[in-house]
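Hi U.,

Before I forget, here's the chain from the pilot set. I'm dumping it here mostly so it's searchable later in email.
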Amino acid sequence: MTVQAKHSRVEPVSSGSTRDEGKAVSRTPEEIEAEIERARANLAVTLDELVDRVKPANVARRTSEKVRAQFVDSETGAPRVDRIAPVAGGVVGVVVLVVLLKRRGRKKK
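Structure:
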């Protein structure tokens, strides 16, 4: 189950007793039960959000979106050459280095 709510909470849970003009007012069992139900609902929402946040598919999706945002302009959808060129150059450099090291290793044998 995926929760679409972002940081939503059902209702804040109050502390021990309510106050009426500075005087403590005792709560009825029904009020206590209602508060417990609100706390349970808050906990359920929080747990659903945590499960959604750590689900591997969602983590992978968010990560790929972040990487894509680095290389594609979000407004136009055009590739960002200023960021792609250095990465492509680095990859080419690593490939050339690996090829040269393999050739050097073959010559020694």
